[in-house]
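Annotators were shown the component list below and the corresponding predicted structure, then asked to write short factual statements about the assembly.
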Amino acid sequence: MSVLVGTETRLCVSGITGSEGSFHTLNNRAYGTNVVSGVTPGKGGQDVEGIPVFNTFHAAVEESGANTAMVFVPPPFAADSILEAADAGIETIIAITEGIPAHDELRVYTQIKRMPGVRLIGPNCPGVLSPGKANVGIIPASFFKEGNVGVMSRSGTLTYQIGNELAQKGFGNSSIVGLGGDPIPGTSFVDVLEMFENDDQTELIVMSGEIGGDAEEVAAEYIAEHVTKPVVGYIAGFTAPPGKTMGHAGAIVSGSKGTAAAKAEALEAKGVRVGRTPTQVAEIAIEILGG
Amino acid sequence: MSVLVGTETRLCVSGITGSEGSFHTLNNRAYGTNVVSGVTPGKGGQDVEGIPVFNTFHAAVEESGANTAMVFVPPPFAADSILEAADAGIETIIAITEGIPAHDELRVYTQIKRMPGVRLIGPNCPGVLSPGKANVGIIPASFFKEGNVGVMSRSGTLTYQIGNELAQKGFGNSSIVGLGGDPIPGTSFVDVLEMFENDDQTELIVMSGEIGGDAEEVAAEYIAEHVTKPVVGYIAGFTAPPGKTMGHAGAIVSGSKGTAAAKAEALEAKGVRVGRTPTQVAEIAIEILGG
Amino acid sequence: MDLLEYQGKQLFARHEIPVPSGIPARTVDEAVAAAEKIGYPCVVKAQVKIGGRGKAGGVKVAANAEEAGEYADAILGMDIKGFTVHELWIEEASEIEAEYYAAIVFDRSARSALVMLSTQGGMDIEQVSEETPEAIATLHVDPLLGFQPFEARRLAFEAGIDADLIRPIGEFLTKLYDTFIAEEAMLVEVNPVIITPERKVRALDSKVTLDENALFRHKENAELRDPSDEDPQEQMARDRGLTYVKLDGDIGILGNGAGLVMSTLDVVAQYGGSPANFLDAGGGSKADAITSAVEVICSNEKVKAVLFNIFGGITRCDEVANGLIEAFAQAKPTVPFVVRLDGTNDVVGRKILADANLPGVYTASTMNEAAEKVVALAKGETP
Amino acid sequence: MDLLEYQGKQLFARHEIPVPSGIPARTVDEAVAAAEKIGYPCVVKAQVKIGGRGKAGGVKVAANAEEAGEYADAILGMDIKGFTVHELWIEEASEIEAEYYAAIVFDRSARSALVMLSTQGGMDIEQVSEETPEAIATLHVDPLLGFQPFEARRLAFEAGIDADLIRPIGEFLTKLYDTFIAEEAMLVEVNPVIITPERKVRALDSKVTLDENALFRHKENAELRDPSDEDPQEQMARDRGLTYVKLDGDIGILGNGAGLVMSTLDVVAQYGGSPANFLDAGGGSKADAITSAVEVICSNEKVKAVLFNIFGGITRCDEVANGLIEAFAQAKPTVPFVVRLDGTNDVVGRKILADANLPGVYTASTMNEAAEKVVALAKGETP
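Structure shown to annotators:
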């Protein structure tokens, strides 16, 4: 098995006729992902290298049986596209678009949370790769092979970096999940921890966090209570400049949370080993799983 | 047993310090209803004949353990009060207020539908009476005694009329539920049919409808599929002037539905006997249950 | 509350829905002045709250001032399906390439707003709905999320709108929804939405129904009410906060609660009577409401007898009784009354009434009995 | 994007939040003219995007034109915690009976907006939060339902607001929420909200942070950016669409993706180096973005060596390589570079770079190796 994307994935790409959209769609298809359709309003009836394009997600779902969406449209239109995919009955929506307004993300998150069975990954994320099965997004798949390590990360390129370090040590991956770096991600570490815990293929979970928010602290609590599989952590930003706080209100809300040190400490307090460099993450993985 | 209100009811009244609010609150208490508190912003700390008044529903729930709300505030403030009660954890909200703007009702209905465990009765309804147990609202309880007939109605005074006819024939009631006559009622016939079907005390269900909307038609379908207890119907408005239709759009939406004749026909098609006068309803009840 | 076409268009304009420019007029002189300002050809349109004015001759295109005056003169005062034309709307003539239909209405069944769009505008849309329902694209809106751009697009694609108009029609629908929400309408309907030769979208007509319960939040809309086209009794009832509908019969009816009043009409009809009106004195009817109600009912000269059917819940029977006594003192009705009082404070109410011993007032203990008596009285019989 | 106090107040005024009247000034003459217009006493306030300006002498009450000029002269150009004062806000003096605190902020943990209210305004609210957190009433808002009147009331009651101010404070919070939503802010903060002797509520200060990603919908807000108070390198980076933060060290850093750049800083630090900046060239970095990045990094004279750490996903390594070649042609950097290219099109990218044979450019195959090399180079050693 794998999580979120795999052999069952039937992908519809929103923004398929854009240059980046078509480039990555074709990349994903070349990898073996079952790309069944695309959506570009006004270009219904056309095709992109044989992939049929529809005017609406509703038509795409009805005609092509899509169950997964990849959203590639520019920021002003991305929230609308995500909501459309959800309304049309798409189950897994992977939003790559960077720079979506925060209030749009807030409305989208709140709406989708109320729609049972619909999951949003991202926005501002690199997507999800289940090596050997499907790649949805912009993760350079050639670096990764099938295996037993599940990776989840708030950062895009850092995910590749860590995946690459693991690969160089001989590890393959069940799935690599990019959660995105925006203030309101659709899916959090806790959600993916639950998936990896229930995934037969995954034997070790790597969690790559960064400064800001409290997603890592919340995940630490969750791991202690619900996760039986070993978890290795990484936190970026130990030497990063202190982030801009949002006035006094922001400081009151976040309290002392949010620093890399606090996050690493929270994880270690729950027995999660935290690597200090991507390389060290791979070394810990070897110790746990054997080389 | 009974439905919606009973011996478990712990009532908090919004608008308790108004003249109508206090009058009916004290009436309800005199009947035996467990009135535990009231809410009037700015009058927290006062009391109405010993009933403590709070500034917010949240304080009322916390301090007095209220589980049921009666909303008696004027129309401009009623939607806010209903949402407050729901937010504070009140399970059953009975809104008496007449004249709430339709868009307010739409927002309130949509929000409450998403809050599991919260039920809104009304607005613009006379409330719910479970004779011998509790009375929440403005139904004149002295006309009714405990018994085995469940009554539900879209109209206020017509409910009393029908209940009275039944009482004169010797029937008592499990519960009398006023659903309210507004375009967007919180609870529909179908909801209460399910409650009466599951209520031990109820042996016969009387459903009093009126022209407009399609609640009776929907109920007819539900009765045929899910209700084992006998149901007697009544529809007001056979000779009423044709209601104002909302342009062509309204006619398109409602189609041929909405007339008293169409409603009676829909019910009779599903085997529900429909009385042509309130008196006839009572006569049919005698035939079914025995005098 | 229904608005006249031009009032609806003014509302539309507030929300940036494109409408042809125009000027309202109440006299021939005003109409000609308006036409001169707008230029020719212009359209002289009867302003009445009923459809079918075109076929009735209430819409004419004027080519010059003379014609404008002639048509204004012909249309002002015209009777269209029982509605007298008191006002005109002089509008610039529009070039029309296509006619669409768009509406947003409160859908009671679904408990949400329904948006409708069709390319079959300009004709009888109800017929389209019956014969080719698939020609009307419909969509329910989540009131908390609001009408989304993708929903507008989807409607436009499903209605089969031309590709170049998907975006402008979507924007049109979005603004129509903005109007629906911001003005708290029960209905906004545009038939036809026109497409000009320049491929611009415009609302050529408007039908707007506002929520009366929400007018307290819309002072400027509350002022749009036009009492001139209301029945004098209905106007009087409205002024006094009563729900009154005039009917054809001779038995005046008053009750508290719409359901009970409708039931009363039914029962009176079953006893062979013919109601003169529907009057709901409302919940918590006070003495002065009763006085007003009696005045309204008796101001209809057809009324031969009156039935008071009160079942008190929030209404208190003692208040009703006192109100009736006051009404008799003030309005001195000359027709007989049958009064049935039950419910809250009924014993006190009945006693008050008995003590007052009003002339021509009969009592009844049930609704059926009351109906029977009032039907007899209306026929000149003694019950 | 942070706004200056007076810009925030102008935003507030748009949404009918009461603020004292005032006039911005950039020179002493303008300040005196503003003071003359406003009358005395008036307040001369430094406009800087940092707290604590009062203690730093950046806020003075002027009793007459002479004082206004004197204070304006003193405050203009003043350095407050590293921020130079370029602008003043001359404001009518307010009478203060009580000082409250109100704010709405994006709460990432709860993924919703958090509204905060306290009667302990005017002082260090963070200290209040630590010592007596119960003195700050807080509430999360459902973004689809919106901020409800009952929520505003509840906050006011829970904060212990005086009974006569429950309603006006509730309205104040509602307008603050309207501002937060309509202007797409990440933060609106008022400290203090003042209560005047006439029991009126007013915003005496403002702190507003707008969402940069939403500025395309708010053209008028986008113009509020004040480049004068930005670091020249940061300004250059922003103009070119790069995310750049200047740091204290001597190793220039460029990466693609914030996480990878942060990780690169950490690894460089672990090898004993000291980063000169954070620079995220972003997803899909094109050749011209790379050229710009090199220019920005090298314009910092402290930089002794530069680390390029690219792991291509949406970014293509061949584009980065070409960009670097172009950058070398244009900017002719004098410091050594360590370049690590991995990911999409990395083989091609590395070949392009090898073929170009740029002076002082070293390659590395891992991030650790790259960090080690650049640290050595910055120390003047040969890796």
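Statements collected:
1. Chain A touches chain D through 64 residues (CB under 8 Å).
2. The mean pLDDT of chain A is 92.
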